[in-house]
Amino acid sequence: MPVLKVGANTYLYERVHAFPDVVDFGTWRASEASGAAITMMIHEEGGSDFKAQLSSDIPGLKLKAERGPKGDQYQVEITLVSEKVRVGPLKGSIVIDTNDAEFPRVIVPVSGQIVER
To answer: CA geometry: angle at 78 spanning 107 and 22, to 5°?
Structure first.
């Protein structure tokens, strides 16, 4: 009897998770940093009244979150503010505080490099 082997990959996520789970801005000139933008999604699988509050320890990092229509996710626009970023390594995190009892906090590492204007 012939056998056909099929390889498959899958990703397993926690019920509450962010995608991407790491944010890397790469290298930006300080004067052009406002052109940097990354979109992140925050999901609560099976949720309907998911709430999340975001904060960051990085000066010049702007977070704009919009809740999805089903109440189970947020779309977050992450940008840099040229006037507030500092020259040097961009290293810190985005902290996501949620109303999910099992996953009250998700931390997303952020990295990058800001060079002279």
So the answer is: 40
Query: Could you tell me the CA-to-CA distances from 36 to 20, 44, 112 in Å, in that order?
Result: 16, 27, 11
Tokens representing residue 3 in the block:
């056998």
Length reported for the chain: 117
With tokens 């997303």, the residue in question is 108
Cβ atoms within 10 Å, residue 82: 18
Percent of the chain residues past pLDDT 90, beyond the cut: 77
CA distances from residue 88 to 37, 107, 110 in whole angstroms, order as listed: 18, 22, 14
pTM: 0.85
CA torsion angle 62 66 67 70 (round to 10): -140
Q: In what order do the strands lie in the sheet with 105-115?
A: 23-29, 105-115, 88-98, 52-56
With vertex at residue 23, the alpha carbon angle to CA 22 and CA 28, rounded to the nearest 5 degrees, is 150
What angle (nearest 5°) sits at the alpha carbon of residue 114, between those of residues 110 and 117? 155
